[in-house]
Design brief:
Blueprint (H helix, E strand, L loop, with lengths): L5 E18 L5 E21 L4 E3 L12 H13 L4 E7 L10 H16 L6 H8 L6 H6 L3 E5 L3 E4 L6 E5 L7 H13 L7 H6 L9 H7 L1 H10 L6 E2 L6 E5 L2 H10 L6 E5 L12
Parallel strand pairs: 3-4
Antiparallel strand pairs: 1-2, 2-4, 2-5, 5-6, 7-9, 7-10, 8-9
Helix pairs in contact: 1-2, 2-3, 7-8
The structure holds 4-diphosphocytidyl-2-C-methyl-D-erythritol 2-phosphate (SUD) and adenosine-5'-diphosphate.
The site of adenosine-5'-diphosphate has 18 residues, from helix 1 and helix 2.
Protein name: 4-diphosphocytidyl-2-C-methyl-D-erythritol kinase
Pathway: Isoprenoid biosynthesis; isopentenyl diphosphate biosynthesis via DXP pathway; isopentenyl diphosphate from 1-deoxy-D-xylulose 5-phosphate: step 3/6
EC number: 2.7.1.148
Amino acid sequence: MTLHYQRFAAPAKLNLTLLITGKREDGYHLLDTDFRFIDYCDDIDIAVRDDGRIELETPTPGVPPDADLTVRAARLLQQAAGCTLGASLRVTKRIPMGGGLGGGSSDAATVLLALNKLWGCGLSRQQLMTLGVQLGADVPVFIFGRNARARGIGEELEAIALPEAWYVVCKPPVSVPTGPVFQQYSQKLLTGEIRFSIMRSLFGAAQKQNDLQRVVKAMYPAVNEALNRLSEYGSPLMTGSGACVFLELATEVQAKTVFQSLSKDMVGFVAKGLATHPLYDGEV
Ligand SMILES: C[C@@](CO)(OP(=O)(O)O)[C@H](O)COP(=O)(O)OP(=O)(O)OC[C@H]1O[C@@H](n2ccc(N)nc2=O)[C@H](O)[C@@H]1O
Ligand SMILES: Nc1ncnc2c1ncn2[C@@H]1O[C@H](COP(=O)(O)OP(=O)(O)O)[C@@H](O)[C@H]1O
């Protein structure tokens, strides 16, 4: 069997603002968040196989291949579409894991979008989004393909237009698991230290904010430190449930200047905000 690989991009996302507006009966928190794609991407090379096998040739350290979101996405689509073809996958990982940049979710979304085409499954964007949410709350927005305001747990999406912007993104030397952060947030709700942002969601917040930031700063001093370093140049924010923090700037020159003036021990990168996902084809 000769394998022909094609390359597909899986971009990172930033949560430009993240409000928590309530809690569902199953314990998941309701969000009101603006997602923006950035041009910092994992690459996924995919070849169709005729033996039905799903092979991950580049296992991610610390993630068993069967648990890898790329493999799970391929198997889910294969099952849902009744497809007998398989795929070999090679992932070039750049997006830090547990960083709030949605790398795993983006990889899964790219595999769903690419294999839907390569296998000729013919599922609609909406059908792929419904499959994707089974893999993670952030998967649907990457399939939606446009920068979006998301509500619910991320499945109610509305496209938003965003100005051109550049971002300095810093990765503190910690990996922040999403579950425990929400748990800690819930505990603070019980003690009355925190309240839901329903009013700010309805009437708009005075400035962009991330409701999980306070909790993560207290749990991970390195995140606090990174925010302090960036706050010398503007108003930084944490993305998702952390650990990455970012600062928005109007031009590439400004972003590069800020990044270069951070000391060398601060790991990070400069990225451009995208208008749409690289695989978005205009179909709604
Ligand atoms: C909060 C966001 C914003 O983008 O953060 P990041 O993960 O990107 O940092 C995401 O919606 C996260 O989505 P995702 O990372 O898929 O979360 P999951 O694995 O589904 O959730 C892990 C755990 O976090 C809690 N959780 C997650 C999402 C949510 N809206 N409410 C929750 O309470 C639940 O306890 C869940 O079991
Ligand atoms: N292909 C993948 N890339 C990244 N993480 C993956 C992948 N498959 C499974 N995971 C798991 O998903 C977790 C969350 O990863 P990721 O989506 O990159 O971070 P975050 O939710 O903080 O944005 C990782 O810690 C890892 O255990």
